């Protein structure tokens, strides 16, 4: 691959302040998410816990923790983040390993993905992996590009760390997240300049591995069969998907309204989790769905703009990775709810009930805000008005 400009040729004086547009989009998405979580879960929470605010209050506590992480990562110097990155990486590995320790982990439906936390909360290790793996790769690629001799550059360590994290998530029986992480990392490698033929080679080996794990569990095969035959198994495998489609159709153009009981959404099991988008569609209608995607598009535009205009390569890579991951999760979740993709466990960022997800999402956004203020590179105090990034070609030594 040839050289290309990841950063634009433009004075950076105007970017010393945080990007207001991106921050506003985060606030709006967070507000809509909390609002939607309350009105779609109030009846279920009142029936099960005798408290219509039960899920809302738990999510709000996690939002407070996430906002703390948001401001820390928004204002902590990037040099400090890079210094503690080895600690973050090791801590994430330890968290993943602890999910296999009985007594410290929580088992649900035969899977161990969570660690016990105070106040009956749990921490999902795969969400922490999403955050750590992007920071690690962004830092690693930045260092590799700074090596003057191209023959001395390589991506082997990055590939090994990536596969280690994904393997740990896969053995936690979080099959959907492991596939998502691998797919996203391939995109990230390509965006940072990795040669395409290496992605295909690694992808071929990964496909064989994922095929083995797919066929090793009956319920995974059932999901694929249900997806390929959407008009069958309406009382089992396709019940949730069909209920979500009915809720979306019931919304019409204007929606059933916020104050309604959302009859169709109430028929979706655990609607406050992965299928919460169906409640938003039923309540707000087509107009609400279009408005949501317009806001999401604005969020993506401001985030990618920050990545391409930041003068700090580490910040640029990290911002791009975090924004791209949030957008990919959103599109996959909406695809599942609409029946365009097989059922997965990918949550809807800002909306789905899940403390780990909302905390990590806000931390990601905090880093992007930090990147929007970057006007210097950690490795060079006298940069030109723009930086030209060359592709990583050190993998030639492994061919």
Strand content: under 5%
Globally, the shape reads globular
Major β-sheet annotation:
3 strands, antiparallel
Helix content: 55-70%
Task: Tell me the total number of β-strands.
Answer: 3
Judged by helices, strands and strand pairing, the structural class is mainly alpha
How confident is the prediction overall: mean pLDDT?
A: 83
Q: Provide the gyration radius in Å.
A: 22 Å
What is the ordering of alpha helices and beta strands? HHHEEEHHHHHHHHH
Distance between the termini: 16 Å
Number of helices: 12
Widest β-sheet, arrangement of strands: 1-2-3
Q: Segments where pLDDT lies below 50 for 5+ residues?
A: 1-5, 7-15, 380-399
Task: Please outline the helices and strands.
Elements: H1 20-49, H2 54-75, H3 78-98, E1 105-108, E2 111-116, E3 122-124, H4 125-145, H5 156-171, H6 175-191, H7 196-215, H8 218-228, H9 239-251, H10 276-309, H11 313-337, H12 355-372
Antiparallel strand pairs: 1-2, 2-3
Kindly summarize this structure in a few lines:
The chain has twelve helices and three strands, in the order H-H-H-E-E-E-H-H-H-H-H-H-H-H-H. It is mainly alpha-helical and 399 residues long. The protein has a three-stranded antiparallel sheet.
What does this protein structure show overall?
- The chain has 399 residues and is mainly alpha-helical.
- Helices cover 62% and strands 3% of the residues.
- The chain is built from 12 helices and 3 strands; from the N terminus they run H-H-H-E-E-E-H-H-H-H-H-H-H-H-H.
- It has helices at residues 20-49, 54-75, 78-98, 125-145, 156-171, 175-191, 196-215, 218-228, 239-251, 276-309, 313-337, 355-372, and strands at residues 105-108, 111-116, 122-124.
- Strands 1-2-3 form a 3-stranded antiparallel sheet.
- Helix 1 runs antiparallel to helix 10 and helix 10 (276-309) packs antiparallel against helix 11 (313-337).
- It is globular.
- The two termini are 16 Å apart.
- The model is unreliable at 1-5, 7-15 and 380-399 (pLDDT under 50).
């Amino acid at each position: 691959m040839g050289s290309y400009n990841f950063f634009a040729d433009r004075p950076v004086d105007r970017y010393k302040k945080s990007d207001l547009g991106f921050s506003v989009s985060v606030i709006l998405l967070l507000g809509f998410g909390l609002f939607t979580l309350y009105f779609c879960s109030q009846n279920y929470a009142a029936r099960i816990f005798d408290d219509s605010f039960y899920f809302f209050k738990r999510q709000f506590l996690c939002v407070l923790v996430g906002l703390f992480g948001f401001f820390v990562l928004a204002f902590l110097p990037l040099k400090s983040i890079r210094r503690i990155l080895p600690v973050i990486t090791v801590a994430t590995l330890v968290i993943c390993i602890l999910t296999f320790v009985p007594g410290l982990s929580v088992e649900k439906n035969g899977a161990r993905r969570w660690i016990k936390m105070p106040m009956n909360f749990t921490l999902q290790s795969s969400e922490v992996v999403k955050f750590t793996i992007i920071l690690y790769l962004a830092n690693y690629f930045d260092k590799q590009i700074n090596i003057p001799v191209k023959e001395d550059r390589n991506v082997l360590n990055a590939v090994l760390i990536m596969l280690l994290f994904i393997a740990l998530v896969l053995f936690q029986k979080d099959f959907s997240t492991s596939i998502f992480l691998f797919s996203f990392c391939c995109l990230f490698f390509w965006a940072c300049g990795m040669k395409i033929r290496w992605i295909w080679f690694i992808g071929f080996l990964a496909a064989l591995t994922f095929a083995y794990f797919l066929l090793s569990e009956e319920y995974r095969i059932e999901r694929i069969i249900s997806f390929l035959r959407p008009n069958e198994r309406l009382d089992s495998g396709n019940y949730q998907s069909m209920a979500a489609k009915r809720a979306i159709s019931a919304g019409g153009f204007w929606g059933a309204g916020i104050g309604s009981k959302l009859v169709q959404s109430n028929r979706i099991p655990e609607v406050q989790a992965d299928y919460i988008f169906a409640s938003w569609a039923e309540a707000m209608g087509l107009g609400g769905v279009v408005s949501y995607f317009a806001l999401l598009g604005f969020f993506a535009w401001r985030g990618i703009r920050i990545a391409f205009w930041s003068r700090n390569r580490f910040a640029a890579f990290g911002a791009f990775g975090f924004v791209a991951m949030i957008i990919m999760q959103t599109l996959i979740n909406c695809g599942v709810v609409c029946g365009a993709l097989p059922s997965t466990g990918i949550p809807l960022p800002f909306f789905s009930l899940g403390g780990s997800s909302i905390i990590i999402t806000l931390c990601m956004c905090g880093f992007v805000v930090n990147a929007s203020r970057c006007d210097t590179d950690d490795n060079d105090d006298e940069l030109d008005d723009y930086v030209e990034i060359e592709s990583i070609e050190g993998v030639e030594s492994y061919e």
